[in-house]
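Module 6 notes. Inverse folding takes a fixed backbone as the condition and produces residue identities as the prediction. Think of it as a translation problem where the source language is geometry and the target language is the twenty amino acids. Below is one complete input and output pair. Work through it position by position during the lab.
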């Protein structure tokens, strides 16, 4: 349906939005579930997945801040032999967004999404490692 609306130009002249439906019953719903590839419960609205991963794989100040924070927490966890701090660093780390963007981009052959995810990861880790090394060097010296 989203593809049909896009073919009509609705996304260019206006917008398309939808909300998650808690419950839907009727012959049309049963038919849609039956016609969905794989298991009906696994039906994916790819436009929604692409939008969500696109937002979360962007290289911005928030992403870089969380990468730096996660890297510093991981370094503190290693220095203090604190597994819980290392786990905390994994929780804070935002790298799942770009990884998901890369995976979705590969699946849908959207090379811009793959490139955006790779750039975010490489730049994010480079900045986080550099800041952590500077902070660690400053504290050690």
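Target side of the pair, the amino acids:
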């Amino acid at each position: 349906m989203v593809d049909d609306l896009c073919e009509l130009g609705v996304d260019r002249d206006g917008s398309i939005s939808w909300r998650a439906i808690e419950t839907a019953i009727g012959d049309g719903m049963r038919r849609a579930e039956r016609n969905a590839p794989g298991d009906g419960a696994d039906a994916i609205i790819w436009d929604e997945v692409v939008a969500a991963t696109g937002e979360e794989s962007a290289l911005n100040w928030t992403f870089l801040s969380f990468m730096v924070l996660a890297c510093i927490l991981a370094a503190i966890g290693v220095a203090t032999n604190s597994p819980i701090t290392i786990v905390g660093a994994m929780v804070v780390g935002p790298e799942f967004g770009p990884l998901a963007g890369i995976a979705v981009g590969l699946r849908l052959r959207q090379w811009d999404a793959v490139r955006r995810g790779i750039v975010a990861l490489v730049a994010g880790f480079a900045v986080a490692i550099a800041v952590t090394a500077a902070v660690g060097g400053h504290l050690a010296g």
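Reference fact for the lab report: The CA atoms of residues 6 and 12 lie 8 Å apart.
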